[in-house]
């Protein structure tokens, strides 16, 4: 089986790692569904569709790209439809906003509370999500030294993903 290729593996960044993406998509949708059921949230067809679109490539997508795909799939073309679905997904931790790109990605572990950190490929916009611990490291030390209480950090690292690096070397 492919148990070592799902996101239960090493805890490394999923987006750039080789993995069984079909399993990844269906597992994440199932986890989102379970989260919504447990929290009494309505996982409507359009919310589900937007999450599915975001999951397709582990790539950050802007609201207009999402809207185009919704239209192709017969979900209408009203921007508020896409925005409301995105708001819902982000608010409930099923998707994250990448501030640097003004775009969105699906969360790869929607059932855990976490502070995400992102690695963003500047060549192909692929995004890998990993965890960050805002209270640790140099920033945490500086905050403690000044008595500042950190509530939220945004970690977005820009660089080149393994696939693009390989292409550049070829
Ligand atoms: Zn995947
Ligand atoms: Zn996440
Ligand atoms: Zn890339």
Could you please describe the fold and organization of this structure?
- With 170 residues, the chain is of the alpha+beta class.
- Helix content is 42%, strand content 14%.
- It contains six helices and five strands.
- The chain has helices at residues 21-39, 45-55, 63-72, 79-91, 137-146, 162-169, and strands at residues 95-98, 103-106, 116-121, 127-131, 155-159.
- The strands form two sheets. It has a three-stranded mixed β-sheet, with no helix packed on it. The chain has a two-stranded antiparallel sheet with strand order 1-2.
- Helix 1 (21-39) runs antiparallel to helix 2 (45-55) and helix 3 packs across helix 4.
- It starts with 20 loop residues before the first helix and ends with a helix.
- Residues 1-12 have low confidence and may be disordered.
Brief summary:
With 170 residues, this protein is an alpha+beta fold.
Topology:
Elements: H1 21-39, H2 45-55, H3 63-72, H4 79-91, E1 95-98, E2 103-106, E3 116-121, E4 127-131, H5 137-146, E5 155-159, H6 162-169
Parallel strand pairs: 3-5
Antiparallel strand pairs: 1-2, 3-4
One zinc ion is lined by residues 19, 21, 24, 58.
């Amino acid at each position: 089986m492919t148990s070592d290729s799902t996101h239960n593996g090493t805890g490394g960044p999923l987006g750039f790692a080789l993995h069984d993406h079909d399993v990844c998509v269906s597992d994440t949708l199932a986890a989102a569904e379970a989260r919504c059921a447990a929290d009494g949230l309505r996982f409507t067809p359009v919310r589900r569709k937007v999450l599915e679109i975001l999951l397709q490539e582990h790539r950050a997508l802007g609201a207009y790209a999402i809207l185009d795909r919704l239209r192709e799939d017969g979900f209408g073309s009203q921007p508020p439809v896409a925005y409301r679905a995105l708001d819902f997904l982000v608010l409930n931790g099923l998707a994250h906003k990448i501030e640097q790109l003004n775009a969105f990605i699906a969360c790869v572990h929607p059932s855990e509370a976490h502070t995400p950190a992102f690695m963003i490929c500047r060549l192909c916009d692929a995004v890998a999500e990993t965890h960050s611990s805002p209270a640790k490291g140099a920033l945490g030390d500086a905050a403690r030294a000044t008595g500042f209480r950190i509530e939220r950090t945004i970690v977005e690292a820009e660089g080149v993903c393994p696939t693009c690096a390989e292409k550049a070397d070829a």
